[in-house]
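Reviewers of the previous submission asked for a worked example of the structure-prediction workflow described in the proposal, so we include one complete record here. The input consisted solely of the amino acid sequence. No template or homolog information was supplied to the procedure at any stage.
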Amino acid sequence: MAISVHTISLGIANVFILNNRGTVLIDCGPPKKADVFIKQLEAAGIKAQEIGLIIITHGHWDHIGSAADIKKLIGADIVMHQQEKKWLEELYESPLHGVGIWGKILAKTMVPAMKPFIHVRPAAVDIALDQFPFSLEPYGIAGRIIHTPGHTTGSISVLLDSGEAIVGDMAMNSLPMRLSPGLPTFVENLEALVASWRMLLKENLKIIYPSHGGPFSPDIIRQALSRYTL
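From that input alone, the workflow returned the following structure tokens.
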């Protein structure tokens, strides 16, 4: 039976439900979205108690914002990269690094303007990864977590055996961050990001699911990477 990938929109960010022999949640969206999440989950015919694991791709506020509330509701363990756990447990922050003129403008204007309105509650990280890949077979999903640094040092992605990749902010496909699908607007380490994508594209990818915007073909990333000689 094929793995179902359910996209749930929580404001500016998507979260994803993987459903097969087990059920896994990827990311938790911005703050104060737990109730919206549960309603959309029920609309998809999935019970919250079925979720066996919460994967958080990285520590930015629009991915960890509702983690504490969602974890309290469903009781599942949270898994993050070891280097990102302080973002959720200690509410650590680091500045965003914009790529290109538009990215630099957003990093200096939109992000600081939003900060006073963002209130994240801390939560414990139950599984802090420092070795990869991490198999999802024990959770009923034919796939694995891989380390994909670049957007942040501890960014992780989920690669399913069936060819889907859920990549967090390794790619973006929505306004105001991008006019079309492609590489992210904010990158901590561009060289690492390009290396992560080149590694990932060696897999038999069929479709990419970003956290911002709709899914798209990996050919778009291949074309974007052709501009880099890193």
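Helices lie at 34-43, 61-64, 67-74, 85-89, 100-108, 110-114, 190-200, 218-225. We consider this example representative of the routine output the project will generate in years two and three.
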